[in-house]
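Quick one: structure tokens for this chain, please?
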Amino acid sequence: MIKKYTLEIITAIVILLFIGGYLFTASTMEGAEFGGSDGVGSAAVAELTGQSEDSFEPLIPQWEPSSGEIESCLFAIQATIGGIIIGLVFGFWIGQNKKNQVI
């Protein structure tokens, strides 16, 4: 019976270790804030070059939406299109496998 559920037991142990590690690190970090790697990278480049972070400009100017709601809507549309494409690819693969199987 133990051999039958070996993968499930290992998975449960890994999940519990992950949760325990997260709770341990979250409890030891007092006053810490989560920051993205973009801010850290920009600060490191600014420190190395001696320029302020605001003096960097992208090579291609980027359009910024007028509000956060429009930005969220555009992100949702982008995620939807990506999900549809991934669904079509996996559906095609599954259809090809079913078509090639001999009954």
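The chain has a mean pLDDT of 82.
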